[in-house]
Design a protein that fits this description.
With about 220 residues, the chain is α/β, with parallel strands linked by helices. The chain is built from 5 helices and 8 strands; from the N terminus they run βββαβαβαββαβα. Helix content is about 25%, strand content about 20%.
Length: about 220
């Protein structure tokens, strides 16, 4: 039987950080992308833990996403990282942990790896490349298309077809369940000024060796 997902909240510098957790054991902090919220990560990660014990999965809504409000004093990615670090310290005080992130969430997770390396047991990164320039990407193309799916779309979902390479009723249902509600809840007056293209980095960019998701992996 699947673990129950429990909604909680805690205060970090005056911000009520809403988060959801499931299971018990080693803390696993899972960070969503730049505009989605916890629903993205719950849908992507929870199936991997069916019948698997020993993990306490923690899914926060970071400021400006989902049920967590933004704050004017968060003015950079460093600020967002510090909020996330304080949240982690409050939700799993003194514990060793694993962190995972999707896209922008992986960017924040890299900062956690840098700041909390001594307490880290592992990390996982999904499509996490914060530098948009210089990427080598394949030409967009649809891999799977159900011809009937277009007839299921509402007017406000037409853009979904342009961004989706597997166009089926199942992927549309996943979008409606985990992504569309998060996009509607996102504070778009707060997020764009603080996204990964921060024009004021606090320190020079460094070259990093590849990160590995498993303890003991070597480059």
């Amino acid at each position: 039987m699947a673990d129950q997902l429990v909604a909680r909240a805690l205060d970090v510098r005056g911000i009520s950080i809403h988060y959801w957790e499931a299971g018990a054991g080693r803390p696993l902090l899972l960070i969503h992308g730049v505009t989605p919220d916890h629903r993205q990560m719950v849908r992507e990660w929870e199936p991997a833990f069916e019948g698997r014990s020993g993990w306490r999965r923690i899914y926060p809504d970071l400021p400006g996403r989902g049920e967590t409000p933004g704050a004017d004093w968060i003015a950079s990615q460093d600020d967002m990282l510090h909020v996330t670090l304080e949240f982690l310290g409050a939700v799993a005080p003194g514990e060793r942990f694993v962190v995972g992130g999707s896209s922008w969430g992986g960017y924040i997770a890299l900062g956690i790896v840098h700041e909390r390396a001594a307490d880290l047991d592992g990390a996982a990164f999904v499509v996490s490349n914060p530098l948009r320039e210089g990427r080598t990407l394949p030409e967009p193309r649809v891999l799977v298309r159900d011809e009937g799916v277009e007839g299921l779309l509402r007017d406000d979902e037409r853009g979904w077809l342009e961004r989706t390479v597997v166009q089926t009723p199942a992927t549309l249902a996943a979008y409606r369940e985990a992504i569309a509600p998060a996009l509607a809840a996102a504070d778009m007056a707060f997020i764009p000024a603080r996204d990964v293209r921060d024009p004021r980095p606090s320190r020079p960019r460094r070259r990093h060796r590849p990160a590995h998701p498993f303890p003991g992996a070597r480059a």
